[in-house]
Task: inverse folding
């Protein structure tokens, strides 16, 4: 990864009084904007704070009662060990490392000196203002904590210094902090954090603290090693699935495969007779077999003779869903998300229709929850992006007050939005209510995919007119889909019924366009087919449409796609700079490409960041797509950890490419057809291209990064395929049968293909 | 009743012969570093070594293991190659969610043990059975090369701030 | 003119005589040799259950996974249309509950329904005609002891003239002989049991004997191999090179009991069903009888002999964990194999975790046309043998025709040392079956 133009020019980030208004300004796109665009529908209480809060004393007491706990995030024990409590959850995005860096930078410790801890569910202490709750998603974690965590570190530092200065009878200003040690600079005296922890804990909190200037950062901006990786390379990390509670039994579960269907009759005689099988538990839409170990439970589950009541969706198919979506697009009522200028502009008219599939998350760690329900308490062990929602759901099911629901959060083996849902937790609580012992409910991979809460299907009709210069003189885009936001946070829906996530990155285009009309038609899925957040949310869908269509317009205008975009980005220097950088790095236009090799560009500004990706692919005569090389240019403002940014761009891009090439959830007889990695395919090592990440550094407020790569992947890929083959893809995943070179290509024996060298990193 | 040689220790387990080794390790022996991902040998998260050979424990009937030595992620760092791989994984900062990484490290260690200087094609052959949803593949490749040669392949991580003596 | 008319009359009369002679029913009840698993002294329901399994009725009369036992509805896609199996539970309205013993016996042994209409020979009455009346009625008794399922038969989807059931009378006249099993006194009782198990009950010939242009069995080439529903039923004659003459008795028996014989074969597709539903349940004595009989089937090369290379160069140049000796032309197939296949099959083809994943020495990987390799990739394997799941994923849903063809050809090259000839079009045709 290269860093372009490193400048450390001003210190305006020192402003610690970041109000909600500013937060809204910097939030940028994605899930966050869904809450903010409409005026902010989140709970006011749900806001992290750098200073002590009413709940803090109890939280610190529950966390080992350390002598120094100035706020919800910092605990310093007598022996000087520093524990940092993470407001967000770690699911791979490296937020524990980023959050620790922000805290440690101001606190004055090294990352090798701290231990990161999972936060307990506590919305007033750990709620993210951008999402209005203790929620990790929408690439908001850094954006939502950038000011508060640094300030929290500074508050702690000032108090520790004050305690040391008082002990030495010196001015606090004459003291410095490094690596957990306070030094009185003139005398050279030193004292460790642990020694002054008690005294510091008794001091009042400073009203004002000064944050470091960027030029003084010692940690922020450097590729620090992840705080969670040492345990992850030895197998020591505890994911939810790894929980082992004394007396625990393990359940394998099967829910009605049909959306919204119920459990009918179950003959469990065979299962109960099997060795290791302990119990069979029925709930309204699922049945579980409990065993001493998962294998016994699974064997028992397979031995059940189950009758389902499939309900109203028994005959539902993908074809029917698509037909209904198309009908809604043509005849439904649209809500306008953006309207500038004229509606009817004459000129060369281009239009296109796009269909995007439902997608499963397929996190590597299948869904699981361990629950122990006793008469007065419900204890839960799980990895979740929404700990408070999980607690509230469990309280409702058990009838217990929320304070009697204890939730232990865990490292998450892949979230991608799936663990923003509580369905698996609710199911586990309902099952565990029936038994006296702690119950670990494990979903098989098949259960995990067949009962995913899928990314919705989208149907897009988009059109433009071209002016005499070939550039768009008008732009009209109608998106039709179900709504995730409308179910997940109905209060965040616009007053006019708009789902801001559905139009994110479609209404807020990076280009200088006139006469733009963007609208959305809400078309709810049949009851029981629940749609959910999926990495990159609205932008993953909309950037594919917008950037594919821009490419289509360039082609119609007879313009080169790079020049065409440049012409429309003259007023957007940040994105233009990225476009130019990526083009330079891939060597755009420098030499002719071989036959059936093509490059495709995509730009966008999702999640408060800006990005340009250029893909280079080869398409064989028989339509197989080989990923040769990807160059990504990213501007995410101030980088907390450039190593994490590169990793998220590479990983996010591959996640998006995997979906664009292979993934689509289809429905037959009201049930998801896919079940495991053989039919819900994932990109493998030997298909992975070179992925170069180039970063433009500046002093802008940090943007989100976890979903940016995913959102920009598909359009770059599709545009490269167009360049290689002349085939414009209006549907995902890539239909390789459309890319065949000629009618005889499939009549030949397949035994010739050029070998693409495995990818290495630039 | 089977006596398994796990990470150098004998473990007696009372389980059915067709029970996959994965669940014996996780639910009976209590070693949870080996992960469940698919149950059908398609993702590699459950990879362990049997007499040094990488196998998918999710489809390995415990009854057919016999005397073979089982090595899991918890003990792979005790082999020279495992140690090199784990160090390279940290230096390159491979992991994201980390769930698949036990299996990735077991596959990579087996590769380096038999092929100390693997080519890209060798890496493809050894590693393509391991799925990573986070998409850490680019860094996995770099880390394997770095483990093999000892030379930095890509951006290296810093363990702590420059003000302190990083270990 | 008169002479011409007279000629016509004679032809018609001779034709009618021939039709009736050729459609003549063997009036004998027939006598079965001793079957170890269904001794004459046993309870009729126990005998019926064993014989129903040995005749593998369930495979064709139960929709896999979702269907109720014996309620029919399984589709058989044939070149001229689709036939659906019927409900043979005792439900009076939709099944065969109203059938008399004679009705049932006639259907099983003559291919004629209780309403007098002909059945299609997708139903193997051509083999079951050898069954003794006692055995057929034991099967009926067993079926009638099971839960009745109300499930209407599905109409066949056949084009003219194949939708004319009466026309099957002519087919029968040409290709079917109503004939009970006749023991061969010159052979051992064990051999006779085996002949009855293979010929009358197991109906091996229906898949393994080549068919002529009229879809009749080519008995001169008995059990020399045929392709059916896109799968190749291999040569199971005693030919040492092309048949199973080179397998030991134990290997044949192991295969019949488990669906796998080390170094020779792992069952999938229709044979996998036969193992899972039928052959694994035979008693050891009956399996041995079947082996004894198969040993005596005259050696024949068959129409598409498969030459087995037991020491394929590329596989021998590979280790369990790393490939070697591959032609760069097969790179696409190699990449697919390293991703989705090598974890179980291994590069040296030895098979890992479970022995049935071994590939070396199998006819599947040695058949350049790759019929069964292609089908196994597309459909996978899912069966339960000896209370253990036997599973290979079905890759057809997420891999293109081109990928499946490339993978099949790679497997044939690497493990069979042959140039595979599978094209994406071939794969598409198999998918359409």
Result:
């Amino acid at each position: 990864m290269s860093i372009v133009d490193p400048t450390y020019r001003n210190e305006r980030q020192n402003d610690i009084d970041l109000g909600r208004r500013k937060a809204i300004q910097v939030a940028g796109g994605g899930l966050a904007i869904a809450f903010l665009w409409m005026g902010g529908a989140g709970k006011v209480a749900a806001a992290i704070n750098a200073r002590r809060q009413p709940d803090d004393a109890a939280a610190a007491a529950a966390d080992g009662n350390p002598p120094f706990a100035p706020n919800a995030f910092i605990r310093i024990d007598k022996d000087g060990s520093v524990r940092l409590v993470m407001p967000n959850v770690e699911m791979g995005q490296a937020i524990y490392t980023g959050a620790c860096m922000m805290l440690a930078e101001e606190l004055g410790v090294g990352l090798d000196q701290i231990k990161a801890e999972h936060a307990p569910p506590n919305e007033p202490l750990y709620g993210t203002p951008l999402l209005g709750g203790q929620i990790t998603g929408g690439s908001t974690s850094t954006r939502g904590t950038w000011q508060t965590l640094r300030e929290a570190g500074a508050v702690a530092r000032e108090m520790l210094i004050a305690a040391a200065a008082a002990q030495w009878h010196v001015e606090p200003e004459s003291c410095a902090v490094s690596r957990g040690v306070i030094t009185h600079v003139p005398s050279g005296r030193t004292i460790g954090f642990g020694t002054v922890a008690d005294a510091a804990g008794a001091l009042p909190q400073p009203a004002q603290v000064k944050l470091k200037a960027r030029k003084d950062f010692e940690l922020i901006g450097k590729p620090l090693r992840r705080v969670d990786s040492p345990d992850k390379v030895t197998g020591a990390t505890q994911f939810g699935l790894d929980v082992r509670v004394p007396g625990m039994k393990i359940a394998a579960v099967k829910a009605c495969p049909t959306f919204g269907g119920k459990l009918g009759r179950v003959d469990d005689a065979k299962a109960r007779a099997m060795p290791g099988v302990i119990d069979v538990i029925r709930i309204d839409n699922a049945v579980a077999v409990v065993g001493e170990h998962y294998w016994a439970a699974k064997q028992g589950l397979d031995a059940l003779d189950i009758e389902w009541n499939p309900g109203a969706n028994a005959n539902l198919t993908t074809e029917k869903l698509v037909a209904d979506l198309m009908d809604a697009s043509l005849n439904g009522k649209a809500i306008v998300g953006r309207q500038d200028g004229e509606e009817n502009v004459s000129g060369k008219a281009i239009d296109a229709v796009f269909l995007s599939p439902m997608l499963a998350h397929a996190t590597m760690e299948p869904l699981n929850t361990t629950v122990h329900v006793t008469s007065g308490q419900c204890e839960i062990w799980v990895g979740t992006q929404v700990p408070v929602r999980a607690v509230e759901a469990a309280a409702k099911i058990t009838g217990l007050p929320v304070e009697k629901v204890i939730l232990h959060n865990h490292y998450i083996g892949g979230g991608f939005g799936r663990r923003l849902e509580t369905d698996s937790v609710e199911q586990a609580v309902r099952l565990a209510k029936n038994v006296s012992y702690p119950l670990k409910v494990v979903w098989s991979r098949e259960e995990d995919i067949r009962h995913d809460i899928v990314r919705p299907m989208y149907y897009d009709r988009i059109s433009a007119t071209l002016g005499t210069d070939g550039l768009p003189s008008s732009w009209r885009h109608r998106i039709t889909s179900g709504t995730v936001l409308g179910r997940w946070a109905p209060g965040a829906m616009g007053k006019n019924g708009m789902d801001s996530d559905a139009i994110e990155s479609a209404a807020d285009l990076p280009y200088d366009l006139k006469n733009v009309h963007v609208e959305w038609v809400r078309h709810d899925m049949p009851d029981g087919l629940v749609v959910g957040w999926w990495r990159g949310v609205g932008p993953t869908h909309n950037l594919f449409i917008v950037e594919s269509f821009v490419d289509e317009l360039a082609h119609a205008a007879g313009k080169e796609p790079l020049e065409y975009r440049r012409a429309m980005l003259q007023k957007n220097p940040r994105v233009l700079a990225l476009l130019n950088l990526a083009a330079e790095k891939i060597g755009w236009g420098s030499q002719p490409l071989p036959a059936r090799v093509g490059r495709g560009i995509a730009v966008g500004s999702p999640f408060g960041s800006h990005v340009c990706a250029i893909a280079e692919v080869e398409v064989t005569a028989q339509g197989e797509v080989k990923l040769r090389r990807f160059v990504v240019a990213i501007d995410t403002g101030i980088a907390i950890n450039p190593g994490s940014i590169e990793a998220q761009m590479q990983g996010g891009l591959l996640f998006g490419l995997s979906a664009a090439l292979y993934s689509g959830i289809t429905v037959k007889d009201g049930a998801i057809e896919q079940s495991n990695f053989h039919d819900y395919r994932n990109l493998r090592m030997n298909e992975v291209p070179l992925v170069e990440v180039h970063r433009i550094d500046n002093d802008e407020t940090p943007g989100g990064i976890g979903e940016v790569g995913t959102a920009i992947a598909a359009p770059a890929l599709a545009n490269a395929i167009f360049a290689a083959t002349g085939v414009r893809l209006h549907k995902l995943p890539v239909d390789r049968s459309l890319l065949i070179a000629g009618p005889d290509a499939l009549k030949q024996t397949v035994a010739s293909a050029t070998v693409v060298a495995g990818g290495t990193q630039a | 009743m089977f006596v398994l040689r796990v990470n150098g220790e004998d473990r007696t387990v009372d389980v059915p012969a067709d029970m996959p080794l994965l669940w014996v390790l996780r639910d009976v022996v209590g070693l949870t570093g080996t992960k469940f991902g698919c149950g059908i040998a398609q993702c590699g998260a459950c990879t362990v070594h049997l007499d040094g050979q990488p196998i998918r424990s999710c489809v390995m009937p415990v009854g057919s293991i016999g005397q073979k030595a089982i090595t899991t992620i918890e003990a792979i760092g005790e082999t020279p190659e495992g140690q090199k791989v784990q160090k390279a994984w940290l230096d390159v900062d491979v992991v994201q969610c980390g769930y698949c990484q036990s299996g990735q490290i077991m596959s990579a260690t087996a590769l380096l043990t038999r092929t100390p200087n693997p080519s890209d094609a060798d890496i493809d052959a050894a590693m393509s059975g391991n799925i990573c949803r986070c998409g850490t593949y680019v860094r996995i490749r770099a880390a394997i090369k770095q483990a093999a040669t000892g030379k930095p392949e890509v951006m290296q991580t810093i363990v702590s701030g420059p003000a302190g003596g990083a270990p | 003119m008169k002479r011409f008319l007279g000629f016509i009359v004679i032809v018609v009369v001779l034709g009618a005589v021939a039709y009736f002679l050729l459609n003549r029913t063997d009036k004998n009840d027939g006598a079965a040799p001793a079957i170890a698993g269904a001794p004459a002294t046993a309870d009729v329901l126990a005998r019926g259950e064993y014989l129903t399994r040995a005749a593998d009725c369930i495979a064709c009369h139960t929709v896999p996974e979702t269907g109720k036992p014996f309620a029919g509805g399984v589709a058989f896609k044939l070149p001229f249309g689709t036939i659906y199996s019927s409900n043979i539970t005792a439900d009076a309205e939709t099944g065969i509950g109203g059938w008399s013993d004679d009705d049932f016996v006639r259907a099983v042994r003559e291919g004629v329904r209780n309403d007098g209409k002909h059945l299609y020979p997708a139903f193997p009455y051509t083999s079951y005609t050898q069954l003794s009346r006692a055995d057929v009625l034991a099967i009926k008794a067993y079926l009638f002891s099971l839960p009745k399922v109300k499930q209407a038969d599905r109409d066949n989807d056949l084009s003219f003239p194949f939708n004319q059931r009466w026309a099957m009378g002519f087919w029968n006249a040409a290709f079917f002989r109503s004939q009970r099993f006749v023991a061969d006194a010159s052979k051992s009782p064990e051999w006779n049991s085996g002949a009855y198990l293979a010929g009358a009950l197991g109906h091996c010939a229906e898949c393994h004997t080549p068919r002529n242009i009229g879809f009749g069995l080519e008995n001169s080439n008995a059990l020399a191999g045929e392709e059916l529903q896109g799968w190749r039923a291999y040569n199971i004659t005693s030919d040492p090179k092309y048949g199973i003459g080179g397998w030991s008795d134990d290997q044949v028996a192991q295969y019949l009991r488990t669906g796998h014989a080390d170094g020779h074969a792992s069952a999938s597709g229709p044979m996998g069903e036969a193992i899972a539903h039928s052959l694994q349940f035979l008693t050891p004595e009956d399996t041995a009888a079947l082996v004894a009989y198969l040993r005596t089937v005259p050696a024949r090369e068959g129409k598409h002999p498969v030459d087995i290379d037991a020491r394929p160069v590329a596989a021998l140049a590979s280790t369990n964990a790393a490939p070697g000796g591959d032609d760069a032309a097969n790179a696409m197939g190699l990449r697919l194999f390293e991703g989705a296949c090598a974890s179980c099959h291994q590069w040296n083809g030895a098979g890992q975790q479970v022995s049935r994943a071994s590939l070396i020495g199998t006819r599947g990987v040695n058949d350049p046309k790759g019929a069964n390799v292609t089908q196994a990739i597309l459909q996978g394997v899912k069966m339960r043998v000896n209370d253990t799941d036997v599973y290979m994923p079905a890759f057809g849903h997420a891999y293109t025709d081109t990928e499946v063809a490339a993978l099949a050809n790679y497997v044939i090259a690497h493990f069979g040392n042959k140039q595979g000839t599978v094209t994406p079009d071939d794969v598409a045709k198999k998918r359409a079956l």
Observations:
- Chain A touches chain B through 82 residues (CB under 8 Å).
- The CA atoms of residues 457 and 683 of chain A lie 22 Å apart.
- The domain at 12-232 of chain A is CATH 3.30.365.10 (Aldehyde Oxidoreductase; domain 4).
- The first helix of chain A runs from residue 20 to 27.
